[in-house]
Amino acid sequence: MLTFIKKIFVWWNRDTIGTKLYTIFFGKLVGKDDFGNKYYENKKKTKRWVIYKEEIDASKIPVDWYSWIHFMKNKIEFNTKVKKYNWQKPHLSNQTGTKNAYHPNKKDDEIKKKYKVWKS
Q: I need a surface site. Which of 10, 54, 65, 99 has the fewest CB within 10 A?
């Protein structure tokens, strides 16, 4: 029962019932990327959207699909395989707000102050 209620009201987990119904009636599957995200467009080819496989994270959209979903180009070349180099790291979700967040002056939970507090 709780998952059904989440499907109706909670949009940040995945797709809601409204999105699923719109996709069923008006959507045409265009393709799928390496992360398992599915890309759709309506029959008039005026709207495009993505249904994420797991957690919604816009940084999981590859470059080709990003340009397609923003109407920068209308065609996806499925036959071209992007060469991955051994120095390239796998995708890591946004770490902002976690203990793994990047901070340039971070040293073991200690950030040095560049000023001294006035004492009265």
A: 99
Q: Residue 77: which of 60, 64, 66 has the closest Cα?
A: 64
Comparing CA positions, the residue from 33, 51, 53, 56 lying closest to residue 41 is 51
Evaluate if pTM is beyond 0.85.
no
Helix (H) or strand (E) holding 22: helix 17-26
Burial 6-21 (b: 16+ CB within 10 A, else e): ebeeeeeebbbeebee
Taking the CA of residue 110 as centre, how many other CA atoms within 13 Å lie in the half-sphere pointing to its CB? Answer: 3
How far is it, in rounded angstroms, from Cα 27 to Cα 20? Answer: 9
Q: How far apart are CA 25 and CA 27, in angstroms?
A: 6
Residue 76 is encoded by which pair of tokens? 């996806």
Amino acid making up residue 20: K
Report the pLDDT value the prediction gives residue 63, as an integer from 0 to 100.
Answer: 78
DSSP annotation of 107 reads B
